[in-house]
UniProtKB/TrEMBL annotation, chain A:
Domain of life of the source: Bacteria
Entry keywords, A to Z: Iron, Iron-sulfur, Metal-binding, Pyridoxal phosphate, Transferase
NCBIfam families for the chain: PRK02948.1
EC number: 2.8.1.7
Reactions this protein catalyses: (sulfur carrier)-H + L-cysteine = (sulfur carrier)-SH + L-alanine
Top EC category: transferase
Name used for this protein in its record: cysteine desulfurase
Keyword Nucleotide-binding: no
UniProt cross-references to PANTHER family, sorted A to Z: CYSTEINE DESULFURASE, CYSTEINE DESULFURYLASE FAMILY MEMBER
GO molecular function: cysteine desulfurase activity
Pfam families xref list: Aminotran_5 (PF00266)
Natural source organism: Virgibacillus litoralis
TrEMBL record, chain B:
Designated name of the protein: tRNA-specific 2-thiouridylase MnmA
Organism annotation: Virgibacillus litoralis
Stretches assigned to the tRNA-specific 2-thiouridylase MnmA-like central domain: 207-269
CDD domains per record: MnmA_TRMU-like
Binding site for ATP: 12-19, 38, 127
Residues the record marks as site: Interaction with tRNA: 128, 339
Record EC number: 2.8.1.13
GO molecular function, one term: transferase activity
Main location as per UniProt: cytoplasm
InterPro entries: MnmA-like, MnmA-like_C, MnmA-like_central, MnmA-like_central_sf, Rossmann-like_a/b/a_fold
Length: 381, 369
């Protein structure tokens, strides 16, 4: 029995072209990009090119790209870095209840440091309301951090509207965690009114351990770590050149293939869902399908529970997830679904996130759907 | 004939050495082994640290060493409803409960067994020191070979149906061998300390723990003839036969708890380890489980009234389906309501029940509580 991967929102396999782009760097390019000799300059050249590609992909300037170890570090830097640097202008931050823990736990940390944080609610469809945001803004608000696409439900948030609204609030920075959006949605930081944006490499078939934070030129941001001059002092430490080159290749691939990928992933999703519908199992989709990203679907299976489902799926070679955090390996009710439906709704404990990507084919989606139907029928009997 | 690789065995793994070795032995025998960690208690402290995380981490490491899949399952709600609520209710009633017996009955060999079955398991295995004997499709539970570790006392509520689906890979071994096997295979849990005490209390102070859930009502300590000997901190903190923590000074023999009066909130104490008030000659037990249905109305067998106690000869008379009168052949010390009485025929564990009443000279000893 072949294992089938349907958890691309957790991480993705590296594209072969990414591996091919990185291998020569591993083999030949070992210089420290900060060194003032030929070895260093050679490495620096690779790094600069990678950075330029990253910047262009979101219509930013290359000096606005801070390369980090990944999405979590970028979110931490965006929130803590601007909160500390701008605390004299205000101490109020707005985010949402359904953020990734990289944002939520950072916001909680800032609360302990004396910042006031407003957590915007979401509606039954997993969407935040721009009116709620408008009402929450005060003279003290220095930062709004709202994810572009929710990682559990795939719901695309009204980022353009938020950006438009915040253009009138000069003192408030707008940060968005675009980890699940990047690669499938067109992002233009100027047009969208985005001041900071988080991207992670391993979610787009690049290597793990690298990501970036876009921070517009005029954003006042303090570093969280100290050392050399790298990343214009905002993120010191010798750079991960091979990672940057792999990330660059992954960026090029998503930029060039955005339309095809959307069509392909949406196709897998539709195929999967219609197989479930056609085989008479009881399920509902969490969130508003029309506003979901192509790669993610979150399905509730009444009469089952997440732990039995995921364990059975895995034993039958299906890799999916609940999308939510685990403590001691056991799955806690999803904070995102709890925010949408209330804590006691059974959908918080019987929902599975399936996420599609380059591992998938029409054949393995069909096979996966068959196995899922068989298991769900057995468990909900 | 199906070979072992077609037989799926779910192993309940705690992150301790026993369940680690249980999984290892099954894997060596070629079974399709799946390790599952049970999370029964939310022990997240004020810093957000949860000791279950460390234990689960050890499960992950061991399973990776053995190359078996691992998962976790959360039974916090079931544990709270079925075990912890019972535990508090018993203390409220002035008794000394045995949550491990209840956990085995309601969680490990019920909720967890159902979960394992839903995963296509043919058997559930644990690291308990006990043995299952299958004689032509009839299942019995035998004591573990290691006298010092035998855990049948805690497993007395298991039924034959359940035993048919259970494996105890360590039952024929002693603890020393188990540690040695873990060392030989360099398991990360090889030298891990055995857990002590009640699982959800762990290393914490028992008194403090209990006081978080039940209000302590201090009262008087008296002899059975009414002589005041001091104050107690709350009846729930004491058990029959207890010597420590009474704080009665003076000369002569040490003092012991002999009983409780819940209505008057009085703790009864008497002097001397062998004080006759601590002794009884029979008991009434309820919630009695016979692993194999008992046909006779009375039998002579042996019994344990506490874990790790030597067996004593008794005659058991059935009162109704789940109540028995147990007659001791020799008087017994410190029989405690709430604890389990477990019956044996040689190496075979017959079942057991919960001690409700203590009897002496054909009278219930009301002072015991």
């Amino acid at each position: 029995m072949k294992d089938i991967y349907m958890d691309h929102a957790a991480t993705t396999p590296m594209d072969k072209q990414v591996v091919s782009a990185m291998n020569p760097v591993f083999e030949d390019i070992f210089g420290n990009p900060s060194s003032v000799h030929s070895f260093g300059r050679k490495a620096r050249k690779y790094l600069d090119e990678a950075r330029r590609t990253m910047a262009k992909s979101i219509h930013a300037n290359e000096k606005e790209i801070i390369i980090t170890s990944g999405g979590t570090e970028a979110d931490n830097l965006a929130l803590i870095g601007t909160a500390i640097a701008n605390k004299d202008r205000g101490r109020h931050i707005i985010t949402t209840v359904q953020e990734h823990h990289a944002t939520l736990h950072t916001a909680e940390h800032l609360e302990k440091q004396g910042f006031q944080v407003t957590y915007l609610p979401v509606d039954e469809n997993g969407l935040i309301s721009v009116d709620d945001l408008k009402n929450a803004l005060t003279d003290e608000t220095i930062l709004v951090s709202i994810m572009y696409v929710n990682n559990e439900t795939g719901m695309i948030q009204p980022i353009q509207e938020i950006g438009n609204l915040l253009k009138d609030y000069q003192k408030t920075y707008f940060h968005t965690d675009a980890v699940q959006a990047y690669g499938l949605l067109d992002i233009d930081v100027r047009e969208n009114g985005i001041d900071m944006l988080t991207v992670s490499s391993h979610k787009i078939n690049g290597p793990k351990g690298i990501g970036f934070l876009y921070a517009a030129n005029d954003v006042k941001i303090d570093a969280l770590q100290f050392g050399g001059e790298q990343e214009r002092k905002r993120r010191p430490g010798t750079e991960n050149v091979a990672g940057a080159v792999g990330f660059q290749k992954a960026v090029e691939l998503v930029i060039n293939n955005k339309t095809e990928r959307n069509i392909s992933y949406q196709g897998f999703k539709d195929q999967f869902i219609s197989h479930l519908s056609n085989n008479g199992i009881n399920f509902t989709i969490n969130g508003d399908e029309k506003k979901a990203i192509a790669s993610i679907v979150n399905v509730s299976f009444p009469g089952t529970n997440v732990e039995s489902l995921l364990t059975n799926f895995d034993l039958d070679g299906i890799a999916a997830s609940s999308g939510s955090a685990c403590t001691a390996g056991s799955i806690e009710p999803s904070h995102v679904l709890s925010a949408m439906y209330g804590e006691n709704d059974e959908r918080t404990t019987n929902s599975i996130r399936f996420s599609f990507g380059i591992f998938n084919t029409t054949e393995n989606i069909e096979e996966a759907a068959k196995r899922v139907v068989k298991i769900v029928k057995r468990l909900s009997a | 004939m199906s070979s072992n690789k077609d037989i799926r065995v779910v192993v309940g793994m705690s992150g301790g050495v026993d369940s680690s070795v249980a999984a290892l032995l099954l894997k060596e025998q070629g079974y399709d082994v799946v390790g599952i960690f049970m999370k029964n208690w939310d022990d997240t402290d004020e810093n957000g640290v949860c000791t279950a995380t460390d234990d689960y981490d050890d499960v992950v490491r061991v399973c990776n060493q053995l190359d078996i899949p691992y998962f976790a399952v959360n039974f916090e709600k079931q544990y709270w409803d079925k075990v912890f609520t019972y535990f508090l209710d018993e203390y409220k009633a002035g008794r000394t409960p045995n949550p491990d017996v209840m956990c085995n009955k309601e969680i490990k060999f019920k909720a967890f067994l159902e979960h394992a079955t839903s995963l296509g398991a043919d058997y559930l295995a644990t690291g308990h020191y006990a043995q299952v004997r299958n004689t032509d499709g009839e299942y019995e539970m035998l004591r573990g070979v290691d006298d010092n570790k035998d855990q049948t006392y805690f497993l007395n509520q298991l039924t034959e149906d359940v035993l048919a689906k259970v494996m105890f890979p360590l039952g024929h071994m002693n603890k020393k061998e188990v540690r040695e096997i873990a060392m030989e295979h360099d398991l990360v849990t090889a030298t891990k300390k055995d857990s002590t005490g009640i699982c959800f209390i762990g290393e914490r102070n028992f008194k403090e723990f209990l006081s978080e859930y039940l209000p302590a009502q201090p009262g008087l300590m008296k002899t059975l003839t009414g002589v005041e000997k001091g104050k107690h901190d709350g009846l729930m903190y004491y058990t029959i036969g207890q010597r420590q923590g009474l704080g009665i000074g003076g000369s002569g023999d040490p003092w012991f708890v002999v009983g409780k009066n819940l209505e008057k909130n009085v703790l009864y104490v008497e002097q001397g380890f062998d004080n006759e008030k601590l002794y009884s000659d029979g008991l009434i037990a309820s919630d009695v489980n016979w692993i194999k249905n008992l046909r006779e109305n009375s039998i002579t067998c042996t019994a344990k009234f506490r874990y790790r106690q030597k067996d004593s000869a008794v005659t058991v008379h059935k009162l109704d389906d789940n109540q028995v009168h147990v007659e001791f052949h020799e008087k017994q010390r410190a029989i405690t309501p709430g604890q389990a009485v477990v019956f044996y025929d040689g190496e075979v564990c017959l079942g057991g029940g919960t001690i409700d009443e203590v009897i002496k000279d054909e009278t219930y000893l009301d002072y015991v509580g």
